[in-house]
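Module 6 notes. Inverse folding takes a fixed backbone as the condition and produces residue identities as the prediction. Think of it as a translation problem where the source language is geometry and the target language is the twenty amino acids. Below is one complete input and output pair. Work through it position by position during the lab.
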């Protein structure tokens, strides 16, 4: 939006649309900041809890070394293992942050795999050649007229019909084109009217 505003600054000034454009940009910025605030809040919530878990682990490792010191304090091996456990415990917070970040990245990247799986399970269209085609003459169709009878069309199962009983006949040798979209009101009448107008033009 900002790039388009910079490119069209002459038009904006010509129509004195600075105030409305500024309000629109402010509203868009507010929406973006709402999402950014939620992201920061979630990251802060996660960081506090991961730090708490890491602190509890370090505390447990240090407390275990202190409690075992009375029984094995003179043992050099115990001292080395106690120091090693505390040093590993100190780095557990960073490992937790890394693990959570990698898990979230994997979850985000798995969307592509889920899409590929979904697309691979989509019902395929009919065959390009059927046994009926072999019985047709080689010069078929002789004229090339197209006739639509009670055509009903929807974008996918579960959605309402966008074409509801369309009847249309296109004579041979006509050049046609469909203008507009199927989602507007009275789309069937407008499509038929548009095709009729284009046919008359050609």
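Target side of the pair, the amino acids:
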């Amino acid at each position: 939006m900002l790039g388009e505003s910079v490119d069209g600054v002459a038009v904006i000034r010509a129509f004195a649309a600075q105030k409305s454009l500024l309000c629109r940009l402010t509203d868009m910025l507010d929406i973006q900041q709402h999402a950014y605030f939620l992201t920061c809040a979630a990251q802060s919530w996660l960081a506090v809890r991961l730090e708490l878990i890491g602190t509890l682990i370090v505390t447990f490792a240090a407390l275990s070394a202190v409690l075992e010191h009375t029984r094995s304090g003179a043992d050099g091996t115990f001292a080395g293992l106690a120091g090693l456990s505390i040093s590993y415990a100190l780095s557990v917070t960073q490992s937790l942050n890394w693990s959570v970040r990698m898990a979230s990245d994997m979850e985000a990247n798995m969307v592509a795999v889920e899409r590929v799986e979904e697309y691979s399970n989509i019902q395929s269209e009919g065959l390009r050649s059927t046994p009926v085609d072999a019985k047709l003459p080689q010069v078929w169709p002789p004229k090339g007229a197209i006739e639509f009878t009670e055509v009903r069309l929807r974008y996918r199962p579960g959605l309402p019909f966008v074409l509801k009983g369309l009847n249309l006949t296109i004579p041979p040798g006509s050049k046609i084109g469909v203008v507009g979209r199927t989602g507007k009101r009275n789309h069937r009448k407008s499509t038929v009217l548009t095709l009729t107008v284009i046919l008359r033009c050609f």
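Reference fact for the lab report: Strands lie at 146-153, 163-170.
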